[in-house]
Amino acid sequence: MLTELEELRTKALAELSRIDNLSELEKWRVRYLGRKGALTSVLRGLGSLPIEDRRSAGATANDIKALLEAELQRKEQGLREKELVAVLEQTRIDVSLPGYPVPLGRLHPTTRTLREICDIFVSMGFQIVEGPEVEWDYYNFEALNIPKDHPARDMWATFWLDTESGDRSRLLRTHTSPMQIRLMETVRPPIRALMPGRVYRYEATDATHESMFYQVEGLAVDQGITMSDLKGTLFEFARRLFGEGRKARFRCDYFPFVEPGVEMAIDCFICQGAGCRLCGNTGWIEILGAGMVHPEVLRRVNYDPDIYTGFAFGMGVERIPMLRYGIDDIRLFYGNDLRFLKQF
Ligand code: PHE
Questions:
Q1: How far apart are the C-alpha atoms of 52 and 50, rounded to whole Å?
Q2: pTM of the predicted structure, to 2 decimals
């Protein structure tokens, strides 16, 4: 009996030492320590031994049982640790690896310029107002003192829209000036408003012409507004946008909806007025059209021109970054070439 137990012990321990996974270990446990296992049946057989042998055989068997159980536990713990290490090894994160690049967007140069312009006028008390790009002939021309067949219509090459009656009443606005009328129709003075937006021209595109671009319209109407308010406001704007030292020049210009009408230029910020390529050797750069709101326009919206006066101005937006950064082709703005856009 004792040799049998001795062999069982040796065999069990030898098998145990070769086991390298938990399912094999469980089979081993069933084989030796289970209810029908080898050691259990030996213990059951103790009863048939003569009484004097029973004691020592029983003690030995119990020692082996305790030993095997202890070894089992040790083995199980070892295997579980190995398994954990394997899992950790597989799922490990190398914190020293570089991360995935996050592509960052940026604001379009037009958006940036628009925001800059709006900020300047908002700080002077102007409100931002927006309106439709599909416009009536009435707002784009008629109410702005440009009747049908007036030669001044040639100033704006127009995209006309097809209408049911086939007449020319709907168009893509050629400038933001219709917003002057829309605003004055809905509010009473005092008005200080800035109206940015897209405008459209039916033109062959080239380096200085696009069929779509942005304008910003300005309008101030109140009692007692004079030409010096126009000049002071726009002069301040030019200095904030182009630098403190800028000079401004106002010269007569013609727009049917203002009287008098002017064009404003600043002294060239590249050559400081001496003459260079940017300013076409004139020393001056034209940046906007403006004027005192025509009494005829005020009458249209039921403002009494004997009580109210106002000034208006309009400027192209893309022209400003073109001048500042020396961009020589307006088509770059909406060509969506990232190599261009990423520079801003
Ligand atoms: N709307 C004019 C244009 O597009 C600019 C302008 C606006 C001139 C307001 C005078 C007053 O050319």
A1: 6
A2: 0.73
